[in-house]
Amino acid sequence: MVRCKRLLFMFLALMILFLAACSSDNEEQSETEKQSSGSIQAGETEGTKAEKVEKEVESVDNTEEVSFEVNQVKEAPEDQGDSEVRLEGEFQIDNKLVSVKGMTNLLPESKLVLSIESEYGLLVGGIDRTEVNENGEFELEYILPDEVEGIVHIELKFEPANQYGEIKNHYLNQLGGSFVQNYAKSNEIYQKVSFQQSATIDGGQHNFSITEPSWDLPEDYGNPKVWIEPVIEKQDDYVVVKINSNIIEDTFILARADIPNYITSGFQGYSYTDPDGSTVLYIHDPEKDSRIKNLTEYDIVITMDPSHHNNGPHVTEVYGENGQNLAGDFVNDEDETKVVEQTITITVEE
To answer: What keywords were assigned to this record (predicted)?
Structure first.
């Protein structure tokens, strides 16, 4: 019995040793698998990293540097708000589109107007408006109707009387500089900042810069003894009458063609004198009109009538309501009214 118990005890001990050995082998195998799996995963990770690095290298190799420029915000002019106003910029005419981009020292929110008038006929609504930006920049444009061609008169202007609030109070009757002109409205005299240019609309492209006017006032400027020095030129379908005179600013001037044996009304042009008494007028060329036959010569008659309704009170103050203060070789009496009238004879070249 005792022997049987010993045998049973030895059998149990061997079984325990056997099971312990198997458990140790399984743990070693499991650890080996884990290590093997870890090695595989590590290998895959290293491979993936290598692929990513390679792709990144390829990506870097395939990129190109792009040139760029950082747009700097332009600062306002140092003299912004000064009473002596400046205008700078470029006009462009592209077929029927008239545009201008520029810079000024006017206060921000000052209202600028682009006005266009056709010499050929009335251009209704030929106006664009904008406000000056904080940095003094401005941009305007206007598309002319298809039927407009030939000479047009372009004006970029700032009128304090048509501003509001602080801007109106800041500039009204306070303007100075070469761009400033006077004009009459409702029997009142106002100031404006103005740049004016005549151009030809012919379907092409034309560019011109805003330039500061240079006025050369004659010594006897504003003297009631009026003189006029005209120059006649031809431009396209127009007779161009360029005038220098001692007539005061913003005086209405009329020029018309007097054609022998014809009663005409369409061959005339008008304008207002500039600050130095000069002006330019355009008249349709009678020589280009097929209705006029056997034309050998004709007259251009230049007239300044102080009593004309287009003249303001500043004109009648100098020359008299009926021109009674006028003097000189070209003064004519017409129904108790004195006018300045000068005649130029044009000979038609064969």
So the answer is: Signal
